[in-house]
Amino acid sequence: MSGRSFAQKVLSRASGCDAAVGDTVVAKVDLAMSHENAALVSSKFREMGAERIWDPSRVVLVFDHRMPANTVSAAEGHRRVRLFAEEMGVESFYQHGEGICHQVLPEMGHVRSGDLIVGSDSHTTTYGAFGAFATGIGATEMAAVWATGELWFRVPETLRIQIDGGMPSGCMSKDVVLKAIGELGADGADYCCVEYTGGTVDDMSVSSRMVLCNMAIEMGAKAGVCFPDEKTRQYLEERGSGGDELFSDEGSAQRRHPMDVSNLVPQVAAPHSVDNVLPADELRDVAVDQAVLGSCTNGRLEDLQAAAALLKGRKVSASTRLIVVPASRETALQAMEDGTMQALMEAGAIVTNPGCGPCLGAHQGLLAAGETAIASTNRNFRGRMGSPDAEVYLASPLTVAASALTGRITDPREVMR
Amino acid sequence: MNTDLIIPGRYLDNYDIASLAKHAMEDIDPGFASKVAEGDVIVAGRNFGCGSSREQAPLVLKELGVGAVVAESFARIFYRNAINVGLPVVACADASLIEDGDTVEIDLAAGTLSSSSGLESGFPPLPPKLLEILEKGGLVSALKERFRPCRPGTGR
Ligand code: SF4
Q1: Alpha-carbon distance A136 to B81, whole Å?
Q2: CA A241 to ligand 1 center in whole angstroms
Q3: Spatial separation of the C-alpha atoms in residues A401 and A143, rounded to whole Å
Q4: In angstroms, what separates the C-alpha of A336 from chain B's closest C-alpha?
Q5: Does B50 sit within 8 Å of A220, measured CB to CB?
Q6: Nearest residue by C-alpha to atom 6 in ligand 1
Q7: Nearest C-alpha of chain A: how many angstroms from B122?
Q8: What pLDDT band is residue A191 in, cutting at 50, 70 and 90?
Q9: Between A144, A381, A383, which is nearest B143 by CB?
Q10: Cβ(A300) to ligand 1 under 6 A?
């Protein structure tokens, strides 16, 4: 083992120390994101006796979990955050349904390669797709970040998932990451920085890479990263962003997990844990009451387009409701412009406003006891999408669309044209 | 044991921890909240607290009086959150040898754990910085000192 890992390089830069694996360093944070839980963060911030946010230009707030408010207490939470943001002079506040935080931040140019980003949300790992070191923290820690701009970090070990092979028809990056989680387990990457490398990743779009980094938390990772290339640069440039590209030195990973996806088939995570992964084909007898296409994992344009290509000119099964939640306003507008939305709605989809939607069982699209859903989201924990007596299966947008079409969990290759 | 089971997302628009805590664990153990007594220790297996970053998970356990969580391993964010809200967390490989109803004694600084059914075990103690946060009752109390206004004449 030799050289320094990506995680070490970012944390060394941000802490001003030579960060060795296992060290605890205090690092300066480049960007701090919170959603509705900013209400809890702000009350911790007050309790601490802090008066000003250390740098209001580095704090980004997004309302996405309960937007527009579905209960009076959610509305009151929103209001508290608005007043707080105004008082503190927070410059970037997306409060009118712009979309899911993890989509809005890169879209609006807040994410930069090489940055140290924290978010009071576990899927903050998503920003690793742009070569940032991004990790989820709790509300009290976020209050400390708002107050001081700093936080302690244990310098993580690195797990390199090297993915090679051409992506088979019917498969998407979601299938790759579900397969990896199934192999490694829900704690298989605990505390690690997961690096996704290899030809398959190089061939992926930035959106597909976001899926990999988003789901890194579902194997316990502290962060996930795809190293920047021309596609990353182009995306960031278009958004007026950029950053310092940092790469791991050869041989710096403590663990390796090679994967060859050439023979991959569509994968599904069965209830009630994300590592309970099976080929979609083995679950063909499972009837679905609800199919959800959306979330910070798979609610982007390419996801909606994949589903629309499969559903165009067809009708969703009479026994299934298909709920489509675009990841952002920009996604929704693009999907309207290119006919994607038209195809989905003509097929019978319910389209909601951009945001988290049914993903966390707090807003729209909840499940009744005894119901079953297939979703392109990221967690199938008991009670996650409504009743604790409902079941949630996780899959790619293609598998979700195929299952909506037939009313049963369906390998998309069976119905693709 | 994931965070959605500890406290389901559907209740998170409630920012009053005392009333939120009534829903702790209800999806797998209805009545949990009324069964827990002050100082009770939760004993668990691997990856306790995986999932969401919701700090309400350790907060509701602390609110109900849970004295500590002893697990074979913890998910990273839950572990940090627990320390930051002042809920002792002990990652002990022998957690499964503790029996239901045992009385356990834990020395966080020394990293030792013993149970009334005879288990004598150890665990890597927390780094001093984190132990200090825990001892002060969490990060809020720890940082309060930092932001305490300077009092004239005391040199602070
Ligand atoms: S879409 Fe789901 S996982 Fe993503 S931020 Fe929203 S609630 Fe969390």
Answers
A1: 11
A2: 24
A3: 41
A4: 31
A5: yes
A6: A356
A7: 20
A8: very high
A9: A144
A10: no
Q: In which domain, by residue range, is A118 found?
A: 6-259
Confidence of residue B129 (pLDDT cuts 50, 70, 90): confident
Q: Give residue-wise pLDDT tens across range A333-375.
A: 999 999 999 999 999 999 999 999 999 999 999 999 999 999 9
- Do A66 and A131 lie in one domain? The reply is yes
Chain B residues inside the 8 Å CB shell of A222: 76
- Give the count of beta carbons closer than 10 Å to the beta carbon of residue A212: 28
CA distance A387 to A48: 37
Interatomic CA distance for residues A189 and A67, integer angstroms:
32
**Pairwise CA distance, residues A275 & A265, whole Å:** 16
- pLDDT (tens digit, 9 = 90+) per residue, A117-171? 999 999 999 999 999 999 999 999 999 999 999 998 999 999 999 999 999 999 9
From A353's Cα to the closest Cα of chain B, the distance in A is 19
Q: Is residue B151 part of a domain?
A: no
pTM of the model: 0.94
Q: How confident is residue B21, by pLDDT bands cut at 50, 70 and 90?
A: very high
Q: Tens digit of pLDDT for each residue in A8-58?
A: 999 999 999 999 999 888 999 999 999 999 999 999 999 999 999 999 999
**Binary contact (B143, A152; C-beta < 8 A):** no
Interface contact A220, partner B, CB < 8 A: yes
Q: Which pLDDT score, from 0 to 100, does residue B149 have? A: 55
Cis peptide bond N-terminal to B149, omega within 30: no
Q: Is the pLDDT of residue A300 over 60?
A: yes
Q: Is the CB–ligand 1 distance for residue A120 below 6 Å?
A: no
Number of domains in chain A: 2
Same domain as A202, residue A316:
no
Ligand 1 atom with the smallest distance to the CA of A297 is 4
Domain with A28 in it: what CATH number? Answer: 3.30.499.10
Neighbours of A280 (CB within 10 A): 28
Ligand 1 centroid vs A279 CA: distance in angstroms? 25
Query: CB–CB of B13 and A77 under 8 A?
Result: yes
Structure tokens at A143: 């209050």
Q: Helix, strand, or coil here: A329?
A: helix
Q: Confirm whether A291 is domain-assigned.
A: yes
* Closest alpha carbon to A178 in A372, A354, A374: A374
Q: How far is the CA of A378 from the centre of ligand 1 (A)?
A: 8
